[in-house]
Amino acid sequence: MGSILLVAEIQKGAIREASRELVTFAQKLGGDVHSLVIGSGVESLAADFAKKGGGKVYVCDDPALAGYNVDGWAKAIRAAADASGADVILISNTPSGWDVAPRVAAGLEAAFVSDAFDAKEGPVFTRRVFNGKLDAEVVPAGGKVVATVQPGAVAAFEGSTEGSTEKLSVDLSTLRAKFVETKVAEAKGVDLTKAEIIVSGGRGVGAPEKFPEVVKPLADALGGAMGASRPVVDAGWLPHEYQVGSSGQVVTPKLYIACGISGAIQHLVGMKGSNFIIAINKDADAPIFEVAQLGVVGDLFEIVPKLTEAVKAAKG
Amino acid sequence: MKILVCLKQVPHQDARLDVNADGSWIKEDGIKFEINSYDTFALEEALRIKDADSGSEVVVASIGPDRVTQALRTALGMGADRAVHVKDAAVEGSDSLGIARVLAAVAKEVGPDLVLMGLMSDDSNASAVPPMLAELLGIPHATAVVKVDREGSGYRVERELEGGALEVVDLPLPCLLAVQTGLNQVRYASLKGIMAAKKKPIDVKTAEDLGLAGAVGAAAAKVRIQKIYQPPKGDGAEMISGSPDEVVAKLVGKIKELGLL
Fold this sequence. Notes:
B: alpha/beta; nine-stranded mixed beta sheet; 6 helices
């Protein structure tokens, strides 16, 4: 493997952890590490990243890049790819990363690998398909590679290294998409992050009326809160404030009971930090059983109401 | 407004997923297919734009074998005006870039002001084609779109970020929007719509018709799936079995052990 370019991202005024994970990921592939830091007033962050595994760090610093801009990012990445001569470009699979990476790959006519969670020399990348139900090993045919990497898949690089920075000048006069603003998350009517016990329902619950009939009674009996997975909210069965997952609330209760939730990655990201997870699902191969400590393959409509009664009885 | 909606037909979300003989994909024989969930929201958004501006045209495009006709008929039944079906064994085995090339060739014939499609597919989960298509067409794009509003001569959209935050972006026309699920409430095809759809045209094309002979398909792919498999169970769950009463007794025992009961 020749040279690797990492595209770092800034979040809340610092290089985000996912970017330091790219350093670890690059080590799996092997090769000379270069990085790119994009933003406005980010030179000191770039210099810092150079000492934390970023290698030679290119800096694209421009007021036009204060907010994420797909055209600006694509131009900066192309310029850094040229300057570094990188064979592989690694970008975190974040809202910015997944937006720009395929665009850069198409422009470079490069092989594109999406949301890899592992890699080895070759290179061979491993990723999830079918909403987490199957894994795939993906192999580029040769030539340049652009890959996005799943945040949290590997540990962030923590060492210190020798590095350097170099300014990159990019023509940003013709940006078409215009960043307007970032809206922060609205305060939730239901704060699941403070709940000690959460009972969540997924697509397997089957119908909106089954939430108050089946899921909520168990949550109430346990003195906990009710949650839901994305498809439930998308279907309009419950409001967004009940959604657990990367685009909803990230929760860490003492007990999480997942009913009829198959376990798409974006849901697992939101609940895998729970202290204890019980999963009830009719599909024995559901990915939720990978993160659960206790699993039941069965009909939630048979088990959950009985469990609710048993909990009530135990409480007396 | 001319709107191109790109649809993918994918295995039904409840379909049984068995790996095929050479381990490169799933067995597709005998399973049910449906329109990719993300794409249904893109189609609905296009139909809403048309509902508000009857001068608009909604063209749906899809790639794949005969079965794809069903997805296109459904889209026409929901209210799309016409369909383009790229049906050619030479396109099979294309990677994301190959698919984007086919759709770019279709888009150049259609000449849309707006391209709408889903953020990702429920089978490959790659979210690769929309930004690639925008790049090949030389138009701006936004992904994970959860709100679409007309603003001046273009669109103001909201993109979903992490933890419920949103990014507001202005895009001039023509542009491409890759939408997130939950953007709207998707309609069903009415009986009247389904009857009307039978008269709507589906234009069938090959790679050669689109000037893409040799440029797409497995041989042109820059990336291939070497192996597809059940994820290792690892330290997965301790599975409990028995009658519902036995299962419930074990669950209650565990909840007590955790000190929560």
